[in-house]
Amino acid sequence: MTQSSIPTIDPNLDLVLERTIDAPLALVWSALTKPEHVVKWFVPAPWTITACEIDLRPGGIFRTVMRSPEGQEFPNDGCFLDIVPQERLVWTDALKRGWRPSENPFFTAIVTLDTQGDVTRYIARAIHRDPAGKSKHEEMGFHQGWGTCIDQLNKLVKTL
């Protein structure tokens, strides 16, 4: 996937979150790709990540287990589709490790990063197969939840 092949946003199917992170690109990339960092910011508190596995290569796994405040766990398995270091991560839950189809595909995520001096521009696109999927993701709190996560990421990168 080249920068020019990133799909155009379809407002009927896609959700977008754009933020500026107050840290250099290399630190943001590290926080996005190292399990020891991902567990600290990838779900809105008081939810937690109890497990994280990242095999950073196309076909590699991106797996997290989210725990609710009540202790219920929600495993999320995905597969990396495209990785351009310090520029782009693309993964989907439509596939599992090694390109194996999943039972319940929901979305594909495209996260792009761009350096802007000492800060990093972060854009997350969540691509759904139909409007119902997009609506479900919005109702689950996409903007608030992912926004809170980016706030947590912003705090984490200041400690790295």
Quick recap of the structure?
This protein is of the alpha+beta class and 160 residues long. The chain is 24% helix and 38% strand.
List the SSEs and their pairings.
Blueprint: E1 14-21, H1 25-33, H2 35-38, E2 48-54, E3 61-67, E4 73-84, E5 88-92, E6 95-96, E7 100-101, E8 108-116, E9 119-127, H3 131-139, H4 142-157
Model description:
The chain has helices spanning 25-33, 35-38, 131-139, 142-157, and strands at residues 14-21, 48-54, 61-67, 73-84, 88-92, 95-96, 100-101, 108-116, 119-127. It is of the alpha+beta class and 160 residues long. It has a seven-stranded antiparallel β-sheet. A hairpin with a 5-residue loop joins β3 and β4 (73-84). It is globular. The model has no long low-confidence stretch (mean pLDDT 94).
Q: How would you describe this structure in keywords?
A:
160 residues; alpha+beta; seven-stranded antiparallel sheet; 4 helices; globular
Helix vs. strand class: alpha+beta
Helical content stands at: 10-25%
Q: Trace the largest sheet across and list its strands.
A: 1-9-8-5-4-3-2
Task: Spell the H/E element sequence.
Answer: EHHEEEEEEEEHH
Distance between the termini: 30 Å
Largest sheet: 7 strands, antiparallel
The value of Rg in angstroms is: 15 Å
- Find the count of extended strands (DSSP E, 2+ residues): 9
Q: How many H/I helical runs?
A: 4
The dominant shape is: globular
Mean pLDDT rating: 94
Strand content: 35-45%
Q: Which blocks of ≥5 consecutive residues have pLDDT under 50?
A: none
